[in-house]
Amino acid sequence: MRIAVLANAAGYYARDLSRAIVDRGHEPLILPFSGLVAREPHAALGIQPTSEEPARWLADVDAVLVRTMPPGSLEQVIFRMNALARLEAAGVIVVNSARAIESAVDKYLTTVRLREAGLPVPRTWVCETAEAALVALEEAGGDAVIKPLFGSEGRGILRVSDPELGLRVFRTLERIHAVIYLQEFIHHPGWDLRVMVLDGQVLGGMRRHATAGFRTNVSQGGRGEAVTVSDREAEWAIRAAAAVGARIAGVDLLTDETGQAFVIEVNGVPGWKAFGTATGIDVADRLIASVES
User: Model confidence over 95-124: pLDDT tens digits?
Assistant: First the structure.
């Protein structure tokens, strides 16, 4: 098989997936998402990194693994999603699918999908004006977490418990035409649970301990340890991945101080470096085995 990986060639995941692809007897092709090109009426999609390099046509590969979704304008993001959907329609295996990435990358859409699936989520408000956000902050009990609608690894997350500070934050977001995504702050015991799901099965779980502040993301200084996932946690994680249509997903669960649990995020392009270190599970190898099947 020829397996293309849309990723930063110098990054960890490009190297890890290349290793797994070669170990399983296949040919890896590491390509930058930013070089995406389409040619019609030939229904051709490919990657052209520079004008000096020839395009690599993705119709010639058996599978495409999406390992990054670079920041971009609305036009760029829509083009990327349409291009991935076009590849799927042409019979190329795409992991995760355009539909799954679209659902998982948008926190509002993820929250809606989780609620529709009957899963518990924190109380959430999404709006565009500072005035509406101030009302939401009050309804949240005056203590809320502001998250970028598109974002991962805990970047850009801010806890607001003061209306005056909140107004300044909301005004700034309003000026840059951002959507304000606000969730009630969940008082937790200092950790959350990341459950890795592949093809409707749980690979394992990692408890992420916050070492400073409230964010538990390992990329933000959190500490990971392997844990056994309970039956309920496994069920919720599998249902959450299915809700956004993801073959592979990192599902984050958070328990408050009373024991009430919530599904707080589904990552459709999940990192597994810390997860693999904590659990000893070779996620890259499992993912390539899944593509083979």
Answer: 999 999 999 989 999 999 999 999 999 999
DSSP-derived letter for residue 54 is P
Tell me the percentage of the chain whose pLDDT exceeds 90. 70
273 token code pair: 């470096």
Helix (H) or strand (E) run with residue 94 in it: strand 93-95
Please give the single-letter amino acid code of residue 81.
M
Counting every residue written for the chain, the total comes to: 293
The sign one gets for the Cα dihedral 110, 115, 118, 122 is: positive
Q: Are the C-beta atoms of 33 and 269 separated by less than 8 Å?
A: no
Q: Is the pLDDT of residue 224 over 90?
A: no
- Sheet strand arrangement including 201-209: 223-227, 201-209, 191-198, 248-255, 261-267
* 96 preceded by a cis bond (ω within 30 of 0): yes
Which ranges of the chain would DSSP assign to H, the alpha helix? Answer: 12-23, 74-89, 98-105, 107-116, 130-139, 163-175, 231-244, 273-279, 283-292
Q: What are phi and psi of 145, to 5 degrees?
A: -110, 130
Cα first-last separation, the chain: 12
Note the pLDDT tens digit of each residue in 132-165: 999 999 999 999 999 998 866 556 789 999 999 9
**Axis crossing angle, helix 12-23 with helix 283-292, rounded to the nearest 10:** 50
Is the distance from CB of 130 to CB of 101 less than 8 angstroms?
A: no
- DSSP output for 209-249: E-SSSS---GGGT-EEEEEPPPHHHHHHHHHHHHHHT-SEE
